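Structure ticket #2291
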Amino acid sequence: MGPKTLRKDTEVFLLGHYESQIVGIKLPSNKQVLSVLFYNLREIKLSNAKSISLAIRETLVFWEKARIPTRGQDKCEQKLKSLHNEWRELQKSKTKKSEVARKKEEKFVNELENLFDISHANAMEMITIEQDKLFLTNQRQPGRVGCFGSVDMQAKRLEDKHVKKMEAVNQRKRKAQED
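Resolution: structure written out below.
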């Protein structure tokens, strides 16, 4: 039997307990992404850069499922690093009793349940399905209103049809080049 872990060992200042993965039926919140980051840092004992990269890759899976265009991986990592640095500054001043320090902590905690928004700058113009636009708009609201539904079968059929068509075109091109 391995070493015992107490609940207080997995607790993070202002966040609560960290988690090994992002779960749920909404796009990830700031809290969920930071939680996975701390799991990678403290349990897996990876470097900051590696932990940030893994947390972002896991986050991108949810955004891809929602079919919402995202920023590049490096920009997403910068955003998470910035959020982590903000948390570190608050942690350093956690013993301060000033009103300003408490206000900053309160603001940070209030933002934790909001969307970790890594959508592309032109996402609303790039998204063609009206339901997807509405979903993103709702997720951006405080509390991340709405959730994923089941797989959009109509969109999946259209995508499969498009893939088959492209394969047929590529096959004809290869055949023409061989002749």
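Closing remark: Helices lie at 30-42, 48-65, 73-92, 99-111, 123-126, 130-140, 153-178.
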